[in-house]
Specification:
Elements lengths: L3 H19 L4 H4 L8 H7 L3 H11 E2 L5 H10 L1 H17 L18 E4 L3 H18 L12 H4 L4 E5 H16 L6 H13 L3 E6 L6 E6 L3 H9 L5 E2 L14 E5 L7 E7 L4 E7 L10 E2 L1 H11 L1 H23 L8 H33 L1 H15 L9 E6 L1
Parallel strand pairs: 1-2, 4-11
Antiparallel strand pairs: 2-3, 3-4, 5-11, 6-7, 7-8, 8-9, 9-10
Helix pairs in contact: 1-4, 1-5, 1-6, 5-6, 7-9, 12-13, 12-15, 13-14
Length: about 400
Amino acid sequence: MADKTAIFESTQALFCALADYVGKGNIDKVFDLKKFATYREFKNKNKLDKIIQTAVQRQIDTPGVSLADMEKLLTSENSWYESSVLIAKTLIQEIATIDKDFRNIQAPKWSDVFYTRGDTDIMGKIGELFKIANENSKKQYTRSIPFSNINKWSPADMYFASKDAKLIIAKEVADAKKNLRAYTFMELNGAITNLIDRGDLLPLSLKKTTSSVVLDKVNFDRVAEDKKINNFKFVRTSDWKPYAINKPQTRDLQIFFVEGSKDVIKFRHDPSTPAFKGEFISPKNPESRGGSLGDGPLSDIFGIFDKSFGNTFRTNFKAADKDFKERVKKLGSKPTDKKLKAEFDEQRAQLSALYVTNKVFPQMIKWLTADKKRATAFVKTTFQYVTSRSSSSSRFVIAKGG
């Protein structure tokens, strides 16, 4: 069975297809959480059973996720139903503000748009194009780094795509393969932009919400994006102190980069994965984080501004991570007993703090505070990378809580 995230993304595709069928003029009557507080009420009272079946068969493409999977999630956890309704409703009401050519979706009955998640024709082929462009970017020196995965180029969880989009993207793949070395993010982003401008494609990043929904257009206005980021600067790090057993300390390091704002880039080591992560966190939207990166891309970003430190950080983290993993092995297998499991998790977290973050955070703090101008450049680049706002990133729309 697919994981919860995949099911939610597929469920959102279904609800967007249903909103397409209902149309903007009737959306308030049908997508009403006060009248239809649960999925069963929404489905039964609106007599949508056959429409839902048709949507699954004709309008959505979500490989690996069945209608049974979706309905199990929608009925077992009502917040997923609420989020699906809120996002789909807002999209059908406001989609013309993204581009006027999307207005045809707002009319009742099906449009010629498909709603895809993990499919071959849209996401699969865009993935092929991304791979070609990203491989070519590794051969060029710029003040940026190749993307570690496609989500850093575009975090789209699903796409609205027309029949024409499928044909155009297929041709783009064929043309790119004729001259692999010549295909870059300039060509790929140009193709995505043209499809959005035609109203044939919409990359959508989903953030679960149980409140109002805001549609955030990302990378549509490069001048505005750059202006916003140019105002960032390294302000300070959080008051991190080395972890000691029986002396509780925070296990993350935060960088503040806007005066008076609580927005931060937070670094932490996740002992359960295990993995080192850097994340953009905004208290304005506590229901979701704004992107992340691992130790590899972080080392690469350090290396842009200080090649020696980038290599040192990479080496020191790998050594610390290896030491941590060896110590965790000595704890044995994770217990099944609830109390013993909690003790195991606590011991593992302590090892993470003592042998990973206690090792690498002092190095990061020293490097950041030694040169604030350099630290500012680091913050800007890191923010762009984790939020998919670099000069090589694609256009996409985030649907998130307002």
